[in-house]
Amino acid sequence: GEGGAGAGEEPDLSRVVELDDVRPALLPIRAPGVRDLYVLGCLSLLGAPLGGSWCSSNQPLLLHEDALPPDLLQQLQLKRTAEELGPGAADQDSLSFAVLSPVLAPTPWYAEVESRRAFMARLLQLLISPGAPYHEHPDLSLAYLVVEATGPVKAEGGPGGQQGREPGTPRSHQQAPQEDARPGGPNLSLGQQRDGYQAGDGEGGMYSRQHVQLSEVDRARGAAKQLLNRQRGNLVLWGALAEMEVLAGNIKGARRVVETTLSAVATFPEPSRRQHLGPLLVSHVLAELAHAKAEAEVAAAWRRAFQMLVWFLAGSGAGTTPYKPLPAASAAPATSAEGLQEQLAAAHRGLAQVLPHVAAASIEAQFSRADAAVVLAAALLEVTAAHVLPSSGCSLHSALAVFKNTAVAGAEQAARKACPNHEWLQAKLCHLVVKETASPEPAMTPAQVREFVLQALSMYPRNLNLLQLLEVLESRAHAYVRLQQFMRTAVDAHPSTHLLAHALTSEVQRQRCSSLVNLDGGASVWLGGRPPVVRLRPLLERAATTQQLATSPQLWLMYLRYEVQQGQPDAVRRVFLRAVRQCPGCKALWLEGLLYAAATPSPALSAGSTAAGASPTAGLLPPRQAAELLEVMGDKGVRVRTDVMEAVMQALDEQPLLL
Fold first, then answer.
1. Are 533 and 514 contacting, i.e. CB atoms less than 8 angstroms apart?
2. What is the spatial distance between Cα 312 and Cα 374, in angstroms, rounded to a whole number?
């Protein structure tokens, strides 16, 4: 074509191909479902913080997870002091974080550079603007506010600047957060690594695994205010703003937004209320219950949750009357037991009208997010009533009965597996069950809870949130060998890098905790000597020979970092050459491999060589072989753009001075 290279001519690397050049070759996508998958999938590839509601984890497109509530995350992380773990434990844990960070703590593309973040924010803003195709899309609305709240990535050794780290720089140059460098739980909570964002994760979705700094919350609030000034009747935007406040740790601010929205619910169109009011309300109820700490706060949270759920369900899930918030000074129930019983009866009458329609939608494979929210609200009502009104006869068992009789009975298993709304509901119920059984008088035995979570995992084996819940249960029971066996079986049955990362984490847990002995006071100490070196090579090698994982750059990044940690120069070189042969087009893999094999690695990883008693891995490749690999890298279309004068000045600095 015009401007292209002819026979025997070198291609013009500076040529810019515009959209008009390729527009005739583009096929129009008119089916709404296919178009949504295409748009949301492309945004996910760019790192947009989308939730899991648009695609089931059983589909091979992408993997999704919901963030665990902070109280369960605290149970998942093994908190050990330096004195308990013995000398060198902190170094070992930070190295484990560095190995697993390509999967457990990925830095999204848009967060690496401010210009990318601005581009992503502008793109999402155009998609949700008034009149745009996705102006009432919950995931995109929340993703836009999260991107606006994202600050620069902190570089190692100092606070992050406006540009974060340089594009293409290997992520191993980022120091692992010390809070997350714990045996068995590296980087499982975003709340441990963001500035001004210490309240932990909410119920919003996927943020627990993205290495971002949500430090610009005021900017996100301003963006939400501008959008709401133009579309006050957009219930989705109000819900996204409340959820963003939860993620920012401002539960009181989220409560104000939700109560204001519910008080003015009559101003919203009825179709919008039917579709979006339920998800907004149950997400906030779960966030309220998850963030309550003190006994008085927990009691008030149960009371507010009961009042919201009764109001919602008494109106058959449509919000027919304005909501009246509970007075802030009322820590104890202001209504008598008879009054609470009447409110519960009204909610049950409203449920009797709406649940048959929800059950029919489940049977006909038309189960929407609003239907899932109604079922979850009904289950939450049974649980909250058991706390607020013990004489009501409600319990966790009645909550699960509502779920089974409404969403499960009569529905085809294949339809449930392919439906993201069924998956969302199942994961939230597992949250509820695991949380409730941690009480002093649980309604279910640990074996029953584990069986319930395993049944959900049999339906959605790639759901990372359910896997985390299983880790919580096995950590409570100290059943690390059983967890390790389950994870290995899961990786073999459903190969993926995320499942592999969980299997590696369970391996770390088992090997570390096998050398701990519990004392009478509840503390744990090592049996003696230094902490054991975690051996992950068999799992990594087994995954590298799997057809589904052999071409995954994340697998090879983990494998490469592990060998660097172990200080095995020959193994580092061998894994690097295998990696670029399997993934020749991955620039990050090339750069990181050359960094380890031909230059000095980062201090965090070179410490692993010292701890293992081996020499650093600098200079593993001869200069000629490194130059040949650079040529191969260029032949594969992977190019490194370096300023010429910068390279010349660096070469001059390395030359010895002649006096």
1. no
2. 9
Element (H, E) at 363: helix 337-363
CA 314/CA 344 separation, integer angstroms: 8
Decide: 572 and 620 in contact? Cβ < 8 Å: yes
How far CA 81 is from CA of 72, 86, 200, in Å, comes to: 20, 9, 21
Query: Mean pLDDT per 10-residue run, the chain (659 residues)?
Result: 49 69 77 80 83 68 44 41 37 53 72 88 92 87 92 49 39 32 27 27 37 82 91 90 89 92 88 90 92 86 92 79 71 70 91 92 91 94 92 91 92 90 92 85 89 94 87 86 89 85 82 54 44 73 88 88 82 88 87 70 41 44 76 78 60 62
Q: What residues pair up with 517 in beta bridges, in sequence order? A: 525
Phi, psi for 380 (deg, rounded to 5): -65, -35
Which 3-state string (H, E, C) describes 395-438? Answer: CHHHHHHHHHHHHHCCCCHHHHHHCHHHHHHHHHHHHHHHHHCC
Q: How far apart are CA 102 and CA 187, in angstroms?
A: 11
Yes or no: say if 637 and 580 are a contact pair by the CB < 8 Å rule: no
Task: Identify the helix (H) or strand (E) that includes residue 94.
Answer: helix 89-104
Q: Which two tokens stand for residue 437?
A: 């059984």
